[in-house]
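Session log. Operator J.P. requested a structure for one protein chain; no other inputs attached. Running the standard single-chain path with token output.
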Amino acid sequence: MSQHQKRKQNLVTFTTLSVLAALIILLGLTPLGLIPLGFIYVTILCVPVIVGTLYLGGENGVILGLCFGLVSLYTAITKPSGLVAPLVQASPLLVALMCIVPRLCVPLVAWYVYRWLERKSEDQSADSAALVFGTLLAALTGLIIVVMLFLSGALKLPEDGETFGFVWEKNQIMLLVGCMVLLAALIGALVASFLSSNAFKNTIAAHAPAAVAAVCGSLTNTVLYLGSMLLFYVMCGIDAAGVLALIGGTGLIAGLSEAVVAAILVPPIVTAVKKIRIR
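Structure written below.
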């Protein structure tokens, strides 16, 4: 590559990095990227971080991850959610670690997963993607079933003073679990049949590395962020038991949702961006 082409390549890289960093800041400071649920924020900021990582490389991805972390820290300090507010009062330093470190790990995990899958054959990549998508779909199916049971009133949480026996009697737990297992098994059989078909493999083979990397990067953010939050609750002497269920529910609902969104958005965006060539 000549010096002129190298300068043009560096200019394109710097410009793309700047645009993605600006997009992260824009999304992070508006409701477009941080959707408030009251007790926590659901974020899509992983998407530009992962897209930039897969297109520009791991080192530039870390820069975007740092932008994500700093925006998250600013939001945590200025507009803390219900879960973050106690930590902000107890230790701003721990909040900074909680906001920045998990976001730095997102591009690292996404990049290494992407490179690992790219070295595999298309069939192996498609099988890996099928495994990831099948697991996510099974988890989402179980979550939807549980939510529907709660909304219909068929499943209730015990109130103060109620025992497990009362919950058993009211909810007919064995019957509900049996129905859930049967439905999940039927859905699983249909999904497994579809995922093993040549049509599916041919469709996702080209996008499998990016999709799996996006899921892994997004789940890395969820697990490390909420995990460190729970750890810092304990370290600061804040009642962690009272928010354990809330953190777990947030990880399940928000984490899976963010992973699915990342898996859907990242592959076509990366494919489109990679079609840009320096002439």
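Operator note: The longest strand covers residues 34-36.
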